[in-house]
Amino acid sequence: MRILFADDGVPYDGRTPAEDPLGGGERAVVGLARALSARGHVVTVATPIIDPEYVDGVFWVPLPMDEGERSLPDEVDVLVAVRRPSLLSLPVRPGRRMLWVMGRPDALIRPTVRARLAHHNPELLYVSDAQKAAGPAAHATGASVLAPGVSRAILDIEPTDPTWPPVAVTTAHPVHGDLDWLLDRWTAGVAPVLPDARLHVYSALLSAGVAGEKVPAEVRPMVERVQALADAGVEVREPQPEAALAEAWKTARVFLHPGQPWDFACWSLADAQALGLPAVARPLGGAPERIANGESGMLTPDDAAFENVTVQVLRDNGLHKGMAEEARAPIRLRSWDDAAEDLERAWLSFLR
Questions:
Q1: Can you give the residue ranges of every domain in the chain?
Q2: Contact, 57 vs 37, CB < 8 A?
Q3: Three-state DSSP class for 260?
Q4: What topology does CATH give the domain 153-332?
Q5: Which of 269, 277, 307, 332 has its CA 20 to 30 Å from the CA of residue 155?
Q6: pTM of the entire predicted model
Q7: How far apart are CA 296 and CA 270, in angstroms?
Q8: Superfamily of segment(s) 2-149+335-351
Q9: Rounded Cα gap, residues 185 and 254, in angstroms
């Protein structure tokens, strides 16, 4: 099949995950496009890049900004609009349109979006069952769920015993409130019990702020807070390309995921689990679908439970080892090749 992915967010191509930090949604596009190409499909991805590239069997082309630009194929079997319904209107002739919903599905009920969906009649592709359940009750073509995969740069990392003092890692966002909540839990219930433990916060915004660079006003208080918590073991780390991040995380002891009700993808949580990193999380958004509760991690019902379980995983070698082994169990490891096979099966069924 001829497949076109279109994403109008940040510029990236198939080399970017190995060279620069990249968001989970963008890495998902890279991973799925590469896997579909390896299965014999002709795959093109349009993003706001300047020059076309051919990487790992995938054609990467500039997303047209003007009507006269012609960088896209004239005709494809499937057009996958990533996140934005407006991309369903690209000047190509698709046999089938699909909207890959990665964020809050309530955006799909806006009148302008509903009109666009009614006009193009796309299938909605969700990243979790919880996201699908939160989406519109009815749509013309239907909806399906594609559970995300994990890149080979992460799956192929060899497990390593965690370091001591113990390290917890998180990618909690500095503005949405989840990092603030997590720091409360750390200072109230973790650091006083394990004063040598470290919490590594991976954040581009906080890294810039700590380095003295200008950051949005709403980020500044969090920059000051994490700097004030250095004595409690809180450290800000810069996001890394996939392989470097995997190397950094593989010697950590636990991944802390406060989460949000609208975070249905939980990209970093999936990566951490694939690395054999036990997780402690709140049961929000897509987290219950990324963790085998009580086996590869724990979904905690309240603040005290989050603190207590975090302490247990940080200091109990037996508990940590059992959860790490479960997280890396073959039955739980899902690559983008697996996701591509699932999606291909659904598409071929439609085209018969």
A1: 2-149+335-351, 153-332
A2: yes
A3: coil
A4: Rossmann fold (3.40.50)
A5: 307
A6: 0.94
A7: 11
A8: Glycogen Phosphorylase B; (3.40.50.2000)
A9: 15
